[in-house]
Design goal:
It contains 3 helices and 20 strands. The protein is mostly beta strands. Strands 8-9-10-11-20-16-15-14 form an 8-stranded antiparallel sheet. Strands 4, 5, 12, 13, 17, 18 and 19 form a 7-stranded antiparallel sheet that branches. Strands 1-2-3 form a 3-stranded antiparallel sheet, with no helix packed on it. The mean pLDDT is about 95.
């Protein structure tokens, strides 16, 4: 059932995702709106919410571990020369309003707040479209505007000294199963080969489902992929991979990621064809 705080996304009349705008979560999880559960057209859930291995992983959304020292990812903060550390530095993304709301998508305004101060204003646009009888696409765009009078920058554990941990930005916590999902791109295979690359698309394929993630703008495609399969299944697009991402006062950062959500295990050629169709719509 759709409620004011939890609209349901539908594709061809079928529910494929619930969007929670005002989650009741402890501060250390960096409360933020998220999509969960997200399902295939056949009804298979392909997201997880607060799993035991990482309780701050919240389905599909935008999460950033370091905005000028404030944690909008949840959990511990990676401190240089110290490691993961419990800090009282968690921010929250607060739903402000829907500018548009339809069964197949919405446009939302959010405020990123830490220590009582609004740092960023976000406009989030989400749309669900049918691709075939067994696949649909989630089109997710977010724009972050620095509303302070000072320059801000976005960092990650990688930019703070932890190699290979450049998470932060769009993030999809996928379904955890007994076996780790397969990971592949158009010309690469396996977590080690794909993590940190700038592939046009990345696929996760589990038991009866496939997710294919694609940067849908030139700027988004320049962000490397953060990929996990063995420890847990998740894919993100890294805003701060090798160095911090500056956002001057009044300036805006925009990213767009399109995800194909399919029943079954897609071969490479079919994954590539569905991505092309999804991005061009």
């Amino acid at each position: 059932m759709t409620t004011p705080d939890s609209p349901v996304l539908r594709v061809a009349g079928r529910p494929v995702g619930r969007y929670v705008t005002r989650p009741e979560l402890p501060a250390r999880l960096s409360p933020r709106p998220y999509l969960h559960p997200v399902t295939t057209l056949g009804g298979t859930a392909v997201t997880e919410l607060s799993p035991a291995d990482h309780i701050h992983h919240l389905g599909v959304g935008v999460a950033v571990p370091d905005v000028e020292g404030n944690n909008f990812w949840g959990g511990r903060t990676y401190v240089r020369d110290q490691g993961p550390t419990e800090l009282d530095n968690h921010g929250a993304q607060r739903h402000n309003s829907f500018q548009l709301r339809d069964p197949d998508g919405f446009v939302e305004e959010l405020r990123w707040v830490a220590s009582g101060t609004e740092l960023l204003r976000e406009r989030r646009t989400v749309a669900a479209t049918e691709l075939s009888a067994a696949a649909w696409a989630l089109d997710f765009t977010f724009s972050l505007t620095n509303v302070t009078q000072c320059p801000l920058s976005i960092g990650s554990p990688a930019t703070n000294g932890r190699p290979g941990a450049a998470y932060g930005g769009f993030f999809w916590r996928a379904r955890k199963e007994q076996d780790a999902p397969d990971v592949f791109t158009v010309d690469g295979e396996g977590e080690a080969a794909v993590h940190g690359t700038r592939a046009d698309w990345v696929a996760l394929s589990g038991a009866g489902w496939t997710l294919v993630f694609a940067g849908a703008t030139d700027r988004t495609r320049r962000d490397p992929w953060f990929v996990r399969a063995g420890e847990y299944p998740g894919v993100g697009s890294s805003l701060a991979h090798e160095e911090r991402l500056p956002i001057p006062s009044g300036e805006t950062v925009v990213r767009r990621i399109v995800t194909v959500v399919a029943d079954g295990r897609l071969p490479r050629l079919e994954a590539a064809a569905l991505v092309r169709k999804a991005v061009s719509q």
